Amino acid sequence: MSHANLSGGFRQIQRHDALFQERVHDAYKAKGKLPEPTVCAHCGAVLHAARGQWRHAPATAHQGTCPACHRIHDHYPAGFLTLKGTFFQSHRDEIMHLVHNHEHHERAEHPLKRIMEVEEKDGATLVTTTDIHLARGIGEALHHAYQGELQFHYNPEQNLLRVNWTH
Ligand SMILES: [Zn+2]
Asked: What are the Cα distances from residue 82, in Å, to 37, 71, 91, 99, 167?
């Protein structure tokens, strides 16, 4: 996986910045000009108006690939959540349980919000996601549960979000 896209275009934002109104031309959403309804051949998400929803696909549904599966296939995350610090290391299992729980809960309603990979990197844990809101939501859930320091860096051109949680 290339992280070259992390080097440029990011700026730090405040937690309450209204950035998350995505006027952005997200390449993966732009691809989503799928006929409706379309069922994802990979994950089974049924897409209506480019929003994934878990429903039964009608027999007439088209087959396609949803934006989340596209990102996973291309190894191109939208959200990068970095977790580090001595508190994190000593409570890692409990904290990762919360991370996965949060995803599970979100995904139940929003099938396009998924964790892609969890990697160990330079003493930190990097969680990548298919959706910037999921990365933000996990960061806020950790901050709510354990405090610590939470930072956001957003790249509006590519609609990428980096979240750093240190504790
Ligand atoms: Zn899919």
From this structure: 36, 19, 15, 12, 11
